[in-house]
Design brief:
The protein is an alpha+beta fold. Helices cover 19% and strands 28% of the residues. The chain has a domain at 20-120: Barwin-like endoglucanases (Beta Barrel). Strand 3 (67-72) and strand 4 (78-86) form a beta hairpin.
Length: 181
């Protein structure tokens, strides 16, 4: 029984290895087009917001997140793209590229190009960290005397504040409410 289990595990492992090799050896030749501007700002099948400046593409059957190398057969230009969207099954084209990818392949004027699509391993470079965005804005609002919280505890501010700058000149006892935004 133990030999049967070990044999089954080895068979399963070899099948999995050959599947990953088969996917990385995927090659397709066909026609490429590029996205129309009407799709800008819409969600792709992967959930990303579509923009024309990314190096991405739509394919009928390759798994989302697959990296492909697309070669224009007319001029041997090459781009590396990530599949992040789906094409309709009825479409006779093989792949839809973003405008910037089509521009690099040199078929903007023609609109279509005969291409070779090869699945490749993901690039080793790590993506840049996300943009932290603008610094947080804080609004400070004076509270009326009736709204003073009843508490014996003092709350220490996270950042040192110069309270003298916050207080009005004529009155020194004012409570403040801080609204993070």
């Amino acid at each position: 029984m133990q030999i049967l289990v070990k044999g089954s595990c080895l068979l399963l492992l070899s099948c999995l290895c050959s599947l990953s090799d088969a996917q990385s050896a995927y090659v397709e030749e066909g026609t490429a087009s590029y996205y129309h501007d009407k799709f800008v700002g819409r969600k792709t099948a992967s959930g990303e917001i579509f923009t024309q400046d990314k190096m991405t593409a739509a394919h009928k059957s390759l798994p989302l997140g697959t990296w492909v190398m697309v070669t224009n057969k007319a001029n041997d230009s090459v781009v590396i793209l990530r599949i992040n969207d789906r094409m309709p099954q009825w479409n006779k084209r093989s792949i839809d590229l973003t405008y910037s990818a089509a521009e690099r392949l040199g078929y903007i004027r023609a609109g279509l190009a005969k291409v070779r699509i090869e699945v490749i391993d993901p690039p080793n470079e790590t993506p840049p960290p996300p943009d932290p965005g603008p610094p947080a804005t804080v609004f400070i609002e004076p509270l009326p005397v009736k709204a003073i919280p009843v508490s014996n505890k003092l709350i220490e501010p996270r950042y040192p504040l110069n309270y003298a700058d916050l207080l009005p000149k004529e009155e020194k006892k004012v409570w403040w409410k801080v609204w993070p935004r």
